[in-house]
Amino acid sequence: MDSKTLIRPEVREFEPYTPGLGIDEIKQKYGLNNIIKMASNENPLGLSPFVQEIIKNYAVQSFRYPAANNPELCNGIGRYLDIDPAAIFCGNGSDEIIDLLIRITAAPGQNNIVAFEPCFSIYKLQARLCGVEFRQTALNPDFTFDFDALLKLIDHNTRLVFLTNPDNPSGFAATKDDIDHFAAHLPPTCFLVIDEAYIDFATPFSQYSCAELPFKNKQIAILRTFSKMYGLAGLRLGYGILSPVLADYLRRVRLPFSVNILAEKAGIAALQDTTFQDMTLAIIDKGRKKLNQELKKLNCRVYPSQANFIMMKPPVSAEKVFEELLRRGIIIRPLKSYGLPDLLRISIGTERENQSLVTAMKEILS
């Protein structure tokens, strides 16, 4: 018997998530010692020294299971955002919450999920893994949101509408008011899931943050992550802001202890270290402006961004630019997998990293 026949058809045809190239992989391939990674939108300052100390202090407690549903972390997030902790659900990265939302709302072969194209690939991957139809409509040519087109895809079988804001890979962000207006036109049979992985970098923050919307509209759920602003990508920690009823259902079906004790303690500490947050925002704002200006001088088309990265179109082949940067030890993200073969995404780095990229681009495009 062929063991493949025992595997669900959706899994047999499943194409896994493809992450960006790793540092060790590039070192080995090109014989390099020093690598600058500007591909995964990580914090250029690394990990807060305060958080590092907290992790060291609690490492000895790693033999203990964490408290179920991470009440200390939920309370910490609640205090930080001044919201009810009952409306917070913590997960092993926001990816876990995306997966759980699909599992508890969308019936295989019956319901559908809607999003723009391109979008964060995990939405589509997890929908397909669960046997749920995934519908997409194109962004506007300038990568802004066409909410009217999105509404046309939604019917009585739609259970989730995913919206990444600020968007990935473009960096475009819709205002809170525009999203609130869109949500008011949704049928009562679906949830709007706003993925705010990059919201900390949007300015002015109050104009874009949708954290208050789930409290006026129970159909809205917000996703946030500790991977970007707080530098905890390797610990896998995210959270949702949603109605207490929806949060309760997520707690019922989650795997036990999915958020480990070090991630929980690190998350609490990261929220307390506002000095590190301010430093991160300053370096992202300065670097975003610097790369925008310098790349435009090189005849690159740079798209407006409210995130910790920029998307750009070089005046020559994007594939060539990507390969030439790799040879110089600089990793950025080609967007062919997003269906955008002419575009590249560049994470904002330190001042030295940004200058190294600009110098390399001048060499490549000269």
Task: Walk me through this protein's architecture.
- The protein is α/β, with parallel strands linked by helices.
- It has two domains: 20-46 and 275-365, Alpha-Beta Complex (Aspartate Aminotransferase, domain 1), CATH 3.90.1150.10; 49-272, Type I PLP-dependent aspartate aminotransferase-like (Major domain) (Aspartate Aminotransferase, domain 2).
- The protein has 14 helices and 13 strands.
- The protein has helices spanning 9-12, 23-30, 49-58, 71-81, 93-105, 121-129, 147-153, 176-183, 205-208, 244-253, 261-272, 274-297, 318-327, 351-365; strands at 36-37, 88-91, 112-117, 133-138, 158-164, 191-195, 220-225, 238-241, 301-302, 309-313, 330-331, 333-334, 344-347.
- The strands form three sheets. Strands 2-8-7-6-5-3-4 form a seven-stranded mixed beta sheet, sandwiched between helices.
- Strand 6, helix 9 and strand 7 (220-225) form a beta-alpha-beta unit.
- Helix 3 (49-58) packs antiparallel against helix 11, helix 4 packs parallel to helix 11 (261-272) and helix 5 (93-105) packs across helix 6.
- The longest helix has 24 residues, at 274-297.
- The chain is globular and about 55 Å long.
- The mean pLDDT is 95.
What secondary-structure arrangement, pairings included, does this model have?
Elements: H1 9-12, H2 23-30, E1 36-37, H3 49-58, H4 71-81, E2 88-91, H5 93-105, E3 112-117, H6 121-129, E4 133-138, H7 147-153, E5 158-164, H8 176-183, E6 191-195, H9 205-208, E7 220-225, E8 238-241, H10 244-253, H11 261-272, H12 274-297, E9 301-302, E10 309-313, H13 318-327, E11 330-331, E12 333-334, E13 344-347, H14 351-365
